[in-house]
Amino acid sequence: MVQKHIGIRDVAEAAGVSVTTVSHVLNNTPHSRTSSETRARVKDAAARLGYGPNRMAQGLRTQRSGMIGLLSEEIATTPHAGRIILGAQETARAHDLTLVIINSERDANDENHRADVDALLNRQVDGILYATMYHRELSLPANLLGTPAVLIDASDKAGLVPSVVPDEEGGAIAAVQALTDAGHRRIGFLNNIDDVPATRGRLDGYRAVLAATGITYDPQLVTNSPSETAAGYAVARTILDQANRPTALFCYNDRMAMGAYRAAAELGLSIPHDLSIVGFDNQELIAANIYPALTTVALPHYEMGAWAVETLVGLMAGHEEGRLLADQPTLIACPLVVRDSIAPPFSTNQHEPKD
Amino acid sequence: MVQKHIGIRDVAEAAGVSVTTVSHVLNNTPHSRTSSETRARVKDAAARLGYGPNRMAQGLRTQRSGMIGLLSEEIATTPHAGRIILGAQETARAHDLTLVIINSERDANDENHRADVDALLNRQVDGILYATMYHRELSLPANLLGTPAVLIDASDKAGLVPSVVPDEEGGAIAAVQALTDAGHRRIGFLNNIDDVPATRGRLDGYRAVLAATGITYDPQLVTNSPSETAAGYAVARTILDQANRPTALFCYNDRMAMGAYRAAAELGLSIPHDLSIVGFDNQELIAANIYPALTTVALPHYEMGAWAVETLVGLMAGHEEGRLLADQPTLIACPLVVRDSIAPPFSTNQHEPKD
DNA sequence: CTGAAAGCGCTTACAG
DNA sequence: CTGAAAGCGCTTACAG
């Protein structure tokens, strides 16, 4: 039942050649010549026996494992993780690289991170991807610096390692512009309260659109609160209770938008006709299932995973461009995902106006 | 900068002993004796140099890679994936095993699956975890059978490989019982329309509670529709429009429950006072953020991942118990997660009755 | 065009 | 109690 695993020697025997020759033809070794007749015999034998090279032996010999490690924080805590992994995994596979995933502990300290990196290093990974599960700045474990590495959804305080992050400002611009394009001038912004890049970038985007459209920035319309549904509800209630209330709300994330939906319902405001709402994150589960479906901005998780692997591959090949990328995080666009939560202001009739 | 990677020979030199001795003390080789003085010197040298064994060399020599492969379908399409991975990954780590993840294509056919398994086999994984992203029955690629393997959230038609699945019936019992315990007798069930184990199991659970409570099964109260929010809304509207409408709804999943929430709102029914609702899946993003927060049944993804690795480890060690598990899927409990969507029927006052 | 041989970094009988 | 040596399955100068 358990047939002995077949190796390169078995192929050589079956083809009546040396293992050297088998290796040459199967790897297409450059500068090696083999008669096409021999090549055929070898390939045939390999296929017939179902031979696949032992990657550990290969790796030991070539000093390249063909594996890259993905070190991620809270892999499962966030619904985003999957798409980063998917982007990294598919791109890795396209390069014939295997992705090894290691999850760092929730309350990981520097020592834990060191240990995680060491675990990967002992596995002889050729490079390391370091992903955090929301966009932030961090200082890296020292042992990461000896190996090709790239950061996902995080940037390196010291600017030594290339990193890729979402273009928060651009995403906010797309969101708010969708609102101004629909004719809104009084636009509330339920911002996060944490001092993270997303909070700053999305505010910048909001202000940029206002400025470009000639709308005066009104601090009354901007709030900072925890980025949770409950806080979103509370803050939306407050902001919508103003005499001259906004006709549209830009929410820091989809969960806050969910809270805003509830506030609107309680106030008898119909979305989008009495109130337009745009979110951020594009958490499908919420955005696509809430009623009406939420127009929001997508975080480019898949793309960041893919970009990171491509860049890592370049670094591993010793390309210099990779190193040049290190001092500035690379921004990936956050596209607007249009659903049903935006309409022109005061469009009290149930049907979209045809124009 | 790039210090040459240190190997066992460096440690041997530094400690003034042979590599054999280093290997013995670092691995705690059974039946090997080493003076405690030597042991100390070796350990000290290893620590000082920051030595970690090259796992590829180790693996090549011992014929065990210390890696297990997780083959998963649609790793990122579902929010569940993360918790399966997390459970598997943490358990693997506890056994000093590394998890290698490979994502099978969305429209994978048998040939693709064979190729995925081969990729893992070439990596010399010691065992394979095969996860589908929703509970179903499948036939396995032939090349999987030569290696220790266990199925997650899926069962093997041929009964050759151990598998772990959620206890759908038990979960449904917990859900419906929560309703009957609150005093409900007319309980609608918005079931899925697909013929999958969850559809059958959850219906069985529903009927079991009814039978145990002496409530006659009323087919009018049970629907089959796609398990989406929109269909959940439509079906809930219909079922709640009946003259003698149910006082509670058991929903196949949280998305359908979300649709039911909307139907209730439109009909002016306040949850939970006019209508109690219980869901299934415990998709945090929905269940915890919807208002009122949804009482639902959790799928034991983390636990399934952990169980699978434990079982795989047993299989790899050659334990016979593992093999015995193969003919019947192992069931893991689906616990009820109590939130705010259940109340006694006709509890029209806004405050919970104190008793 | 083809092959014999060394060696990647370990572990493990075996000898002393 | 300690060490010399073989060998895991490959690749790659090198020789012919």
Give a nutshell description of this structure.
2 copies of one chain form a homodimer. Chain A has 13 helices and 12 strands.
Descriptive labels:
homodimer; 355 residues; alpha/beta; 434 Repressor (Amino-terminal Domain); Rossmann fold; 6-stranded parallel β-sheet; 4-stranded parallel β-sheet; 13 helices; 12 strands; elongated; disordered C terminus; DNA-binding
How would you describe this structure to a colleague?
Chain A has helices at 8-15, 19-27, 36-49, 55-62, 81-94, 110-122, 168-181, 197-213, 229-240, 254-266, 284-287, 301-316, 320-324; strands at residues 67-73, 98-104, 127-138, 149-156, 163-166, 187-192, 222-225, 248-251, 276-278, 296-297, 330-332, 336-337. Chain A is α/β, with parallel strands linked by helices and 355 residues long. A 6-stranded parallel beta sheet of chain A has the order 2-1-3-4-5-11, with helices on both faces. Chain A has a 4-stranded parallel beta sheet with strand order 7-6-8-9, sandwiched between helices. In chain A, α1 (8-15) crosses α3 and α9 (229-240) crosses α10 (254-266). Chain A starts with 7 loop residues before the first helix and ends in an 18-residue tail after the last strand. In chain A, 50% of the residues are buried. Residues 349-355 of chain A have low confidence and may be disordered. The interface between A and B is large, with 54 and 54 residues. The structure holds a DNA duplex (16 and 16 nucleotides).
